[in-house]
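Email to the structure team, subject: N-acetyltransferase domain-containing protein model.

Hi all, the expression group asked for a predicted structure before they design truncation constructs. Nothing fancy, just the tokens so they can compare against earlier work. One-line instruction: predict N-acetyltransferase domain-containing protein, return tokens.
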Amino acid sequence: MSLETGPFAAERASADELRAWYDLSVTSTAADYPSNPVPPYDSYVHQLCRPTSYLGFQRLWVARDNGRLIGTASAVFPPDENSARAIIAVRVSTRNRRRGVGTRLLQAMLPEIHARGCRVIAGQAKAGADGEKWTHALGFRTVVQRASHHLDIKSADPARWQVPPAPGFRIEQWVDSAPDNLVQSFARARNAIADSPTGEASYQHPDWTAERVRQYEARMRETGETHRYVAAVEERSEAVAAFTEIALVPRQQSHCYQEDTAVLPEFRGLGLGRAVKASMMRWLTTDLPSEVSALEARLPASERPRAGAPERVVSEGSMDR
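Reply from the structure team: attached below.
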């Protein structure tokens, strides 16, 4: 093997290079997560060529054997509370695994990770699969195990989505930007997700404010994603008591992705979580009846898969600098 690793500038890559990256991603993911949807080529490449992902600034690397692409890697550098973390993904073609390709890719990434002041490297792998064994061999440790769920909307019973809000609450919905009269209370509702379990992961839930909500909305627009929100508003106070969020990826309208759902502690037990999710399903199936076929649950913002795998292990490795 004549292995070479180095940075990859997707925005300047040739059509053949982009196709090779896409093909490797599809085949390696299918080996580990055979139930995953296959993203359309145009949608995948559109996202790959953007310097900013939904988590933060992104850098890419490749491994080649005699010029043939056999491995890829990405590192995302989140801002704010999680700026000390680098979130990585390493993929190696199945026929070239256990030959040191992933380790060489990680070594190629380390100078950039160090230069950005990151102290923790985080990533995810399927439990019991090659990726988990590789990370443990390198000294990563499992910090949390999570399940991902995939709902085929076309086979679901729509009667399950006929759930009205509790008395004293009404349903509000919007696309991308929260209404000005709700953005303050929406920020407070977003903070309600902070009591969700993160195991031993170093991930810090954001401290949401109205300003931060607007920053997040602007970043999502930059990535090209469309985000839909459904909220339960308490009519007495005119404040958001619960919400759910769905992401639609450009050129990938057959699938959508579940983002956060949260209910403020003082309003839990009233069925508001079910009510906002049911309203979201009615909205999606009415508005996009011929396009949306599946809904996938995402992990928290720091550890989201684009997949419906049965179980994922989120691993972290610390670096002494």
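Confidence is low (pLDDT under 50) at residues 300-311. The radius of gyration is 20 Å. Ping us if the truncation boundaries need rechecking.
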